[in-house]
Amino acid sequence: MKVIAFYNLKGGVGKTASAVNLSYLAAAAGYKVLLWDLDPQGSSSFYFQTNGLTVKNAAKKLLQQDIVLTDVIQPTAFVNIDVVPADMSARQADIILDTTKQSKKRVKQLLQQVTNYDIVILDAPPGISLLHDNIFTAADWVLMPNIPTTLSIRSYEMVISYFEEQGYDTNRIKCFFSMVDHRKNLHHEVMQQFYKQKIFFKSYIPYLSDIEKMGVHQQALFEYANTSYAAQCYRDLWNEIEKHCIKA
Ligand SMILES: Nc1ncnc2c1ncn2[C@@H]1O[C@H](COP(=O)(O)OP(=O)(O)O)[C@@H](O)[C@H]1O
Ligand SMILES: [Mg+2]
Predict the structure, then answer these.
(1) Cβ(53) to ligand 1 under 6 A?
(2) pTM for the full predicted model
(3) Which CATH fold topology does 2-246 show?
(4) What is the rounded CA–CA span in Å between residue 236 and residue 232?
(5) Does ligand 1 have an atom closer than 6 angstroms to the CB of 92?
(6) What atom in ligand 1 is closest to the CA of residue 213?
(7) What tens digit of pLDDT does each residue of 166-221 get?
(8) Which of 62, 99, 240, 246 gets the most CB atoms within 10 Å of its CB?
(9) Which residue's alpha carbon is at the smallest distance from atom 5 of ligand 1?
């Protein structure tokens, strides 16, 4: 079972769009996927149209180990994709974790309870906190979408420094460019500069209205634009991820 987190210090960079579309492609390739929506905003749960959680304050109870992951896993319309829906009590994750023993290992311990998945995808909220330490500890791979702008790149460098400070293996981080606007020179320049670093996948996701429309359709991109350029870009990225993070 491989655990892949979509993460960035910054919000609005395409973490959730990637987590949802890549879960879909992984499932279509035959892998059994669990998507765990750790962002209290609940966007990936929304895209998979999961029913609300039947357990109240599920995130709080999970982190306190009052319940197990299988108590909250929900099926989706797709055979190979199950979801742990988001829950507003995840807002207090850091306060809850702070009071628990082995506070950086809770998410990893919870994932050890499930064995029937090939891939677990974590849709992380933005930020760096104790919850993120949990995500970094549990994940085999931390995949970071980056908009090719100065500020986004700065946040990527901060994450690398944080990994080094905390003694996490930076080789587990891979980045890809997201929301790329071909009309902007800055985007081209930043991409040229950073492609020299092996940490970036060659495939990238452009800024495309077909992707933006996921919210309108409340679905993964492939359900309504399977033959689009956007769909092809995600497929190229998935192929790289599968080769580098799943099969290697
Ligand atoms: N490549 C893209 N092109 C156009 N819009 C995008 C793209 N990726 C994401 N979006 C839109 O931008 C917003 C933020 O994306 P989201 O994936 O939710 O970011 P994050 O999870 O990092 O906060 C959403 O409305 C989403 O539909
Ligand atoms: Mg998100």
Answers:
(1) no
(2) 0.97
(3) Rossmann fold (3.40.50)
(4) 6
(5) no
(6) 27
(7) 999 999 999 999 999 999 999 999 999 999 888 999 999 999 999 999 999 999 99
(8) 62
(9) 212
